[in-house]
Design brief:
By secondary structure, the protein is an alpha+beta fold. The protein has one domain: Immunoglobulin-like (Sandwich), CATH 2.60.40.1510. 19% of the residues lie in helices and 38% in strands. The protein contains two helices and twelve strands. The chain has helices at 2-22, 184-201; strands spanning 24-33, 40-41, 45-57, 70-74, 77-78, 87-91, 101-107, 116-123, 131-140, 147-154, 158-159, 167-172. Strand 7 (101-107) and strand 8 (116-123) form a beta hairpin. The longest helix is centred in the N-terminal third of the chain and has 21 residues, at 2-22. It is elongated and about 80 Å long. It comes from hydrothermal vent metagenome.
């Protein structure tokens, strides 16, 4: 019995060592583009793009399961209290769904907790110096503060020699409240306010 357990461990270690030898080396470079202002995305809805480039030296994901061995994952997003993710992502009409497949995973809430959401974009293997660009839509559903979402690549079949360029954080905020200074009614109210202030503090000069 003890010998069988030892043999099983040896086999498992051998398989792990063999797979590590077979794994390629692929440096995936990730770039996320939103319409942000000073690093913060303020629009409630909009479009974004995700670009992944394989800097080599090997083909990325060639030993994975087709058609989508590589994924770009977003960090966990919380529920807004109304059964809606605080931030939602989906493929846009200009996205090539055969090469960029958007998916959503809804996590079961822990006891006393809320639902969480996981978004990912699945892509095929990438040749050396090959680039793929995915196009998506986003919408925000929170009313205060900011939310930071980190996107990162996941390629379990290769070793990435430069892990610093395969993740990027995106900050979402609340759009500022616009003041309708060009509206006629607002201008009339503003003029009346200045008139009231002027009458209240006006003191005639005595010569």
């Amino acid at each position: 019995m003890v010998l069988n357990n030892i043999n099983k461990k040896i086999i498992l270690l051998s398989l792990f060592y063999f797979n590590s030898l077979m794994a390629g080396v692929a440096d995936l470079d990730l770039e996320i583009n939103f319409n942000d202002i000073n690093g913060v995305v303020l629009d409630r809805v909009g479009e974004f793009s995700v670009t992944v480039t394989n800097l080599g030296p090997d083909v990325a994901g060639s030993k994975g399961t087709p058609p989508f061995p590589i994924a770009i994952l977003a960090s966990i997003i919380q529920d807004n209290g109304s059964s809606t993710p605080e931030i939602q992502f989906a493929a846009s009409s200009s996205n090539d769904n055969t090469r960029c497949f958007f998916s959503l995973v809804i996590g079961s809430p822990p006891p006393g907790g809320s639902v969480s959401y996981g978004y990912d974009i699945n892509i095929p293997q990438l040749g050396v110096n090959e680039t793929i660009e995915c196009h998506g839509l986003y919408s925000t559903h929170f009313n205060s503060g900011t939310r930071e979402i980190t996107w990162s690549t996941r390629n379990s079949f290769d070793t990435d020699p430069v892990p610093g360029n395969n993740s990027q954080a995106v900050t979402f905020g609340i759009p500022p409240i616009s003041v309708p200074i060009n509206q006629p009614y607002f201008l009339i109210l503003l003029s009346l306010l200045f008139l009231i202030i002027g009458v209240k503090y006006y003191r005639p000069s005595i010569w």
